[in-house]
Amino acid sequence: TIKACIFDLDGVIVDTAVYHYKAWKRLANSLGFDFTEHQNEQLKGVSRVRSLQLILGWGGVTKTEAEQEQLATQKNTWYMEMVNQMKPEEILPGAKEFLKSCRAVGLKTALGSASKNSMTILEKIGITDMFDAVIDGNKVSKAKPDPEVFLAGAQALGALPEECVVFEDAIAGVEAAIAGDMKVVGIGLPDVLKGANLVIKGLDEMTLDKLYKL
Ligand code: B16
Ligand code: MG
Predict the structure, then answer these.
(1) Of 53, 105, 122, 177, most Cβ neighbours within 10 A?
(2) Quick one: three-class SS letters along 122-187?
């Protein structure tokens, strides 16, 4: 039986991907190169340090560890300037409604995100109280596709992995859920999110009925 739902943040609850993209693009441009929207897809669900390493690789740029830290901080400053402007209307369609439906029938809810800024984002859109637990980039050391973030979520909710359903938009996230022995609903395209038990376009297509049939 399903006892808990664990939600990824970027791409599932909010579309912060556009802000990540703008900030990374600005950083790349400041270093004298650019990258495509297609390349940007590879950054989804990937940690900040790993994203920077990928981008520097695309530009053929080598930086010391200290310089990398500085660049990651610069990107985050630009990113947070945009996040700080976020309004509750920016929650993705159906997300709040589905969270409410889950909680109304006694299902536990957790956030399972790679972001170190998740608390600020939840506060900006006003849904902090919709989660029984928040597991994010500050609490885990192994990035998706490692299942650590979701396993920590299950534990915080007092649920076994097989009692959890994960909602994810990134390939690495779907893989992490599967590696953690959890059911997973992909948010996006079926041919991209292979292995998910169900793929939908957004949480506005999700119902408790579909959840219990997984
Ligand atoms: P931060 P998710 C991920 O969020 C983003 O998809 C990814 O692009 C970002 O690099 C990562 O969070 C870390 O974010 O720089 O805020 O710590 O999809 O796991 O909710
Ligand atoms: Mg995501």
Answers:
(1) 177
(2) HHHHCCHHHCCEEECCCCCCCCCCCCHHHHHHHHHHCCCHHHEEEEECCHHHHHHHHHCCCEEEEE
The structure tokens 């299950």 sit at 154
State yes or no: 115 annotated in a binding site: yes
Q: How far apart are the C-alpha atoms of 43 and 105, rounded to whole Å?
A: 35
ipTM of the complex: 0.94
| Over residues 189-206, mean pLDDT | 95
What percent of the chain stands above pLDDT 90? Answer: 95
Cα 60 to ligand 2 centre (Å): 27
Q: Is 71 annotated as a binding residue?
A: no
Residue 41 has pLDDT above 90, yes or no: no
Give yes or no for residue 109 CB within 6 A of ligand 1: no
Q: Is 165 left (phi over 0), alpha (psi -120 to 50) or beta?
A: beta
Q: Does residue 8 have an active-site annotation?
A: yes
Q: Atom of ligand 1 at shortest distance to CA of 75?
A: 15
Residue nearest to atom 3 of ligand 1 (CA): 45
Residue 136 counted as an annotated binding residue? no
- For residue 43 and ligand 1, the question of a CB distance below 6 A is answered with yes
Q: What is the pLDDT of residues 109-155, one digit of tens each?
A: 999 999 999 999 999 999 999 999 999 999 999 999 999 999 999 99
Instruction: For residue 44, give the 3-state DSSP assignment.
Output: coil
Strand, coil or helix: what is 67? helix
